[in-house]
């Protein structure tokens, strides 16, 4: 579903083994009706693949055409895993300007010979990881607007019923449209929560952006892990002016990150950022990556603060 190239220098979320759930393989037949997606099936002949723009995990991503419009086509090299099907079901239920729009799925008669293809809107400016590195630093107002897009997308996930924790919020999972609108993508690791008060127990994601409560042997966490990760993304955006841009904890291994973030409670350097941007943004950032989840704002509060800042620019 992501229209991007693979970043060789960025730590990757390790793909789950395709052997997971093999004993249940007969149940992985794509039943669009049970997924609530019966109206989203696209005949393979209606799709045209053009340029390959990304590759990773178990799929390749192409620019394609569907009904005369340019789209992103994710072509799976193997049968869909349980994680892929879960992502499909989630995507079909989303409807928000800051979530990548799912258009449909193409299921061939023989999925072992012809790949399943997932079709979504094309975000022609790629992902935020590349965008920050390839586009000249915009105005503070534009940076705040992109931050707002991300915050609104996460707020939507957290406030919908059932609510969703993304769990892998990072710059390469945020896509940018031709109009520079940010949209959240890649829901393969997202977790549905039936109750806003309940805690979740499982460890996933990319350590560099992760909240420290995820690193316990038996982690318990809630939506605030996305708030922490979002702060790391915002910090990346504040490096926009820097010719030697960094992602969080670049060059450090996982164990070093566990020590510096978890045990020592350190955060990426904000030296000089108050003068370059504005103190309110930095203060918000510091609250968002607080060590104690209870001290972090909700994404709704982040949206409110950013809207206030945007109105003053």
TrEMBL record:
A GO molecular-function descriptor: ATP binding
Entries under CDD domains matching the protein: STKc_MAP3K-like (cd13999)
Kinase is among the record's keywords: yes
Biased composition (Basic and acidic residues): 1-12
Region annotation Disordered: where it falls in the sequence: 1-25
Keyword annotations of the record: ATP-binding, Kinase, Nucleotide-binding, Transferase
Tagged with keyword Transferase: yes
One Pfam family here: PK_Tyr_Ser-Thr
Residue span, Protein kinase domain: 47-309
Record PANTHER family: MITOGEN-ACTIVATED PROTEIN KINASE KINASE KINASE 20, SERINE/THREONINE-PROTEIN KINASE TNNI3K-RELATED
Protein's UniProt name: Protein kinase domain-containing protein
Organismal lineage: Eukaryota, Fungi, Dikarya, Basidiomycota, Agaricomycotina
């Amino acid at each position: 579903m992501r229209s991007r190239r693979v970043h060789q220098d960025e730590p990757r979320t390790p793909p789950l083994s395709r052997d997971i759930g093999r004993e249940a393989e007969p149940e992985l037949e794509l039943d669009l009706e049970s997924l609530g997606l019966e109206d989203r099936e696209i005949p393979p002949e209606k799709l045209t693949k053009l340029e390959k723009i990304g590759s990773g995990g178990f799929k390749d991503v192409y620019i394609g055409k569907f009904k005369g419009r340019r789209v992103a086509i994710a072509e799976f090299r193997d049968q869909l895993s349980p994680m892929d099907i879960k992502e499909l079901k989630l995507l079909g239920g989303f409807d928000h300007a800051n979530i990548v729009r799912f258009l449909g799925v193409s299921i061939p008669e023989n999925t072992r010979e012809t790949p399943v293809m997932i079709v979504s809107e094309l975000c022609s400016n790629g992902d935020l990881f590349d965008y920050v590195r390839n586009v000249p630093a915009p105005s503070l107002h534009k940076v705040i607007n992109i931050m707002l897009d991300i915050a609104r997308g996460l707020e939507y996930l957290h406030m919908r019923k059932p609510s969703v924790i993304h769990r892998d919020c990072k710059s390469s999972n945020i896509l940018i449209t031709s109009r520079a609108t940010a949209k959240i993508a890649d829901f393969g690791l997202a977790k549905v929560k039936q109750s806003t008060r309940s805690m979740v127990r499982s460890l996933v994601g990319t350590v560099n952006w992760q909240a420290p409560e995820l690193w316990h042997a038996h982690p318990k966490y809630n939506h605030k892990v996305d708030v922490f990760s979002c702060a790391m993304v915002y910090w990346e955006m504040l490096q926009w002016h820097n010719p030697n841009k960094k992602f969080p904890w670049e060059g450090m291994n996982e164990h070093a990150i566990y020590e510096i973030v978890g045990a020592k409670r350190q955060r990426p350097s904000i030296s000089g950022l108050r003068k370059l941007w504005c103190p309110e943004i930095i203060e918000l950032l510091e609250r968002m990556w607080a060590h104690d989840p209870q001290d972090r704002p909700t994404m709704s509060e982040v949206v409110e603060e950013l809207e206030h800042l945007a109105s003053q620019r």
